[in-house]
Design a protein that fits this description.
The structure is a single chain. It contains 14 helices and nine strands. It has two domains: 145 residues, Immunoglobulin-like; 300 residues. The chain is elongated.
Length: 482
């Protein structure tokens, strides 16, 4: 079976296992509200106050109040309170004249750009103070009911037939960060990014170490390997560019309607008013720099690889700017650095392994090359890969601790269980890598050894592609620390 076939065979069951959890996983959890969910009020509220587990992007925060007659009631624009960006309020500007069940619908996007929505109901009782009174005359507000208030909790368990029958539109399916199409786009983006990083690591680290150990005797092999790496890196950069625009479109579809815009108006808001948009713009600029570098490297300009390295290093930071690391309420700089090193290390290990397979080995096995060339090239890769693997594991532990926070959350949350799945599949990659280092590498120098390396490396890469599928799904899930 080909490398693509092996990757597909692994990714299909993993995708089927991951996508059913999407409805239960979302960013931006509503922690409390005023009026409280399912509360019964004896006074007409003057505002809707929502407290979330993270600070929402105000440009994409929407609150709607629906009355007993299914008519929307005029609200002011959502605004954050002065002392906490996690608390959003919307003034009720129209007079409330009817008692009955009222529904609050909310939609937000967090700092990582992931949209989420929800709803809750409250009831205004007959004879409530402020019914039918114009807004400037109302002076009463709804009491704050905390989630841990036992008396309030007891009151909210008893619903009238109208309350129990009220539909909950927040449970309808909608396109968001955990949708299968969005996950597939992120997987393509992560795969292309891994190859871009791998091309740079292969040319500047693996091939350079190969040359240092063998000297001028391998100048032709090194030159051909770098030329192939430049072509592959440029192709991956172009694919990454296409994936980036696909992500922007997917993000605009996910956020369409928030802030009153369609997808066209949303794109401008995303790019200018969100951290996600800043990360996307940095990514596009870095892709352009990396592509220019690869283009110059194809023309055997030495400066080309330096430029490509600058672009690649900048690209390694961008997933953190559009993911969980940027959304952490505290220690975000440390999380972003750890995530960037993690991404760079994945490219330095798996990406450069791919380059060894499709750029280095063909050059080393070409007619007129030495018998030791393949073995020495793989030995050079092994030296570099071990360092990247160590950095990958260390930064993975740091990121897991920051996002999960406790051991019980590993098996008690969808994110934690998916993370454990990623660790299990990544362990298989590590096991195959260890097998290659201990068993396959000593057999190199013969054609049979090269064929064995191709098969085992293809298996390692196929499982690595499955790890990227799981990673793409994880980015769309709520972390236990929220």
């Amino acid at each position: 079976m080909s490398l693509l076939g092996r990757a597909g065979a692994l990714m299909i069951p993993i995708a089927l296992a991951l996508f059913p959890v999407r409805a239960a996983e979302a960013h931006g959890e509503l922690k409390s509200s005023v009026p409280a969910s399912k509360s019964r009020l004896n006074a007409v509220p003057r505002e809707i106050r929502l407290t979330f587990n993270e600070a929402p992007e105000l440009a994409f925060t929407q609150i709607e109040l629906i009355g007993p007659d299914s008519v929307s009631i005029l609200l002011g624009a959502p605004s954050a309170v002065v002392d906490s960006a996690r608390v959003v309020t919307a003034e009720i500007r129209a007079a409330i004249s009817k008692a009955g069940v009222y529904r609050v619908l909310w939609r937000i996007a967090g700092r990582d750009g992931h949209p989420v929505r929800g709803s809750f109901i409250f009831t205004i009782t007959e004879g409530a103070s402020g019914l039918g009174v114009p807004r400037d005359s109302v002076s009463v507000v709804a009491p704050l009911i905390q989630a841990n208030d036992s008396a309030a909790a007891a009151r909210t368990e008893i619903l009238t037939p109208d309350e129990a029958a009220a539909p909950d539109p927040s449970q309808d399916d909608f396109f968001d960060a955990s949708s299968p199409v969005y996950v597939a786009i992120r997987w393509l983006s992560f795969t292309a990014l891994t190859i871009v990083l791998g091309a740079v690591a292969f040319a500047l680290l693996v091939v350079r170490l190969f040359e240092q150990r063998r000297g001028n005797a391998v100048g032709r092999v090194a030159s051909q390997a770098r030329a192939r790496a430049a072509n592959i890196g440029l192709a991956a950069a172009l694919i990454l560019m296409l994936a980036a625009f696909a992500r922007l479109h997917a993000q605009s579809v996910a956020l369409a309607g928030l802030g009153g815009d369609g997808t066209g108006g949303v794109i401008g808001r995303v790019l200018t008013q969100t951290v996600w948009g800043t990360g996307w713009l940095v990514q596009i600029a870095a892709i352009v720099v990396a592509a220019i570098g690869f283009f110059l490297a194809r023309r055997e300009r030495a400066v080309g690889w330096t430029i490509a390295a600058v672009g690649a290093l900048a690209l390694a930071v961008t997933p953190a700017l559009t993911g969980h690391a940027a959304a952490l309420p505290s220690l975000a700089p440390i999380a972003i650095i750890a995530d960037a090193v993690h991404v760079a290390s994945a490219g330095g290990w798996l990406g450069s392994l791919l380059l060894v397979l499709v750029a280095g080995m063909p050059a080393a096995l070409a007619p007129g090359t030495g018998d030791r060339d393949v073995a020495d090239l793989v030995n050079a890769f092994s030296t570099i890969a071990l360092r990247f693997a160590a950095a990958l594991g260390a930064t993975g532990l740091i990121s897991a601790w920051m996002q999960v926070g406790s051991f019980p959350a590993l098996w008690g949350s969808g994110y934690g269980r998916t993370l454990l799945l990623k660790v299990a599949v990544a362990s298989a990659v590590l096991a195959i890598g260890a097998y290659n280092w201990r068993r396959v590498r000593p057999a190199l120098g013969e054609k049979a050894g090269a064929a064995l390396l191709r098969r085992s490396a293809a298996a390692e890469l196929a499982i690595g592609a499955a790890v990227l599928v799981i990673t793409a799904a994880l980015v769309g899930m709520e972390t236990p620390r929220g």
